[in-house]
Automatic annotation (TrEMBL):
Membrane topology: Single-pass membrane protein
Domain TonB C-terminal, residue spans: 107-201
GO molecular function, one term: energy transducer activity
UniProt protein name: Protein TonB
Length: 201
């Protein structure tokens, strides 16, 4: 009897255990599955090596070439200076280089030597009308060789050529006269300037 009772008790216990296990399985299937978290991915960043810096050497521009300087104009001596020209038919001025009296010529030989002579301008009205004439003037030369005290003595026609003749004479330059090693003033000199229109051809 004892063995039978023990067998029954063991069978009942096994049966209960089987039922309990089946109930556990059924209840586990009905429960929602646990939320699966995505795996965390760790990326290890490596420092990139610095890119090589390339330097370019720019060639220097060539130095600027010096500009060629224009040739300097040659200086002209008083004898080479061209006189003024009038563009209304091209009248040209002729000078009477011979003094009107022997006194002027004698003083010129003793030291009153002109080194600069300025040509007078031909008056426009006279050139247009074809008029010619002359102007006689007296003047003095100071110690520096400048013309002073210039004035008209006589002229033909009167007053037509006076202004241009005086203006030209005052611009003349003389070599001073030397006496006893010193420059002296010369006075009483005279000159005649003739105004003539030279015909072409």
């Amino acid at each position: 009897m004892t063995k039978v009772s023990a067998s029954i008790a063991i069978g009942a216990a096994v049966t209960l255990a089987a039922f309990a296990f089946m109930d556990y399985l059924i209840s586990s299937d009905e429960r929602a599955p646990a939320e699966v978290k995505p795996p965390i991915v760790l990326e290890i960043m490596q420092d990139k090596p610095d890119s090589e810096v390339k330097t370019k050497t720019r060639p220097l521009p060539p130095p600027p070439q010096p500009k060629a300087q224009p040739p300097r104009p040659q200086s002209m001596t008083p004898a080479e200076v061209a006189g003024p020209q009038i563009g209304i038919g091209g009248p040209e001025i002729e000078f009477d280089n011979t003094p009107v009296n022997t006194t002027f010529a004698a003083q010129q030989d003793t030291g009153a030597t002109p080194i600069v002579r300025i040509d007078p301008k031909y008056p426009v009205d006279a050139a247009r009308d074809g008029k010619e004439g002359w102007v006689e003037m007296s003047f003095s030369i100071d110690k520096a060789g400048n013309v002073i005290d210039a004035k008209v003595i006589n002229a033909e026609p009167r007053r037509l050529f006076n202004r241009e003749a005086l203006r030209a004479l005052k611009g003349w330059k003389y070599r001073p006269k030397i006496e006893n090693g010193q420059a002296v003033v010369q006075s009483g000199l005279q000159v005649v300037l003739e105004f003539k229109i030279q015909q072409e051809g």
